[in-house]
Specification:
By secondary structure, this protein is α/β, with parallel strands linked by helices. It has 7 helices and 8 strands. Strand 2, helix 2 and strand 3 form a beta-alpha-beta unit. The mean pLDDT is 93.
């Protein structure tokens, strides 16, 4: 049995937006489990991440949980007091919209909703946060212009209890550094 609230739950959705940076930051966290949506499983290989190659990047005890059950069975670990923080990074505009209106039909959206109901802090690295977003596609850099609806959803997400929205890898790292201080933990410095 794991110690109470001893782990980070890191959820990846179907976005490649700063995916490399998000995974690099996640790999530095102690006590982390990775939760993948079905879309994440499609996108990761496009960005040259094979599931069987992820484990060596992370600290010992790392677990990979996949969205393979209709009722999102892994979410039950939130009720067992395993996680102290839920991170959704990167979060697609689809995931953000679902979180804003309370739709929990994927592993990441279900983790986000249930964590909030349990008062577990969440950090969401939203993709569409500025009028112009430059991001890496699988083959090149692209310029996107999020619509008003995406920007409005990010603003609404900021109003949800127990949720902190970040807009860049630097903000994500700063939010996690602050959370580590709150938890009396430190970044993992071992090289994998």
């Amino acid at each position: 049995m794991l110690p109470a609230r001893s782990r980070f739950a890191w959820c990846i959705t179907g976005s490649g937006h700063f995916l490399d940076e998000a995974i690099a930051i996640a790999a530095r966290l102690p006590g982390l489990d990775l939760f993948l949506s079905d879309a994440a499983e499609e996108v990761l290989p496009i960005y040259k991440y094979r599931l069987d190659e992820l484990k060596p990047r992370f600290a010992p005890g790392f677990r990979l949980l996949r969205d393979k059950t209709a009722s999102a069975v892994p979410v039950g670990m939130l009720y067992d007091d395993v996680y102290h923080t839920v991170v959704v990074a990167p979060a697609t505009s689809n995931t953000v919209a679902k979180c804003v209106v309370g739709i929990s039909d994927s592993l990441p959206t279900n983790m986000f909703a249930q964590a909030g109901k349990l008062g577990i802090p969440g950090i969401v690295f939203a993709c569409d946060t500025e009028p112009v977003v430059v991001t890496r596609s699988p083959h090149d850099w692209v310029t996107l212009r999020p619509r008003r609806v995406e920007l409005d959803n990010v603003a609404r997400l900021r109003e949800i209890e127990h949720c902190r929205v970040v807009c860049s890898p630097a903000e994500l790292e700063a939010a996690l550094a602050a959370r580590l201080v709150e938890l009396h933990l430190a970044w993992n410095t071992s090289s994998s």
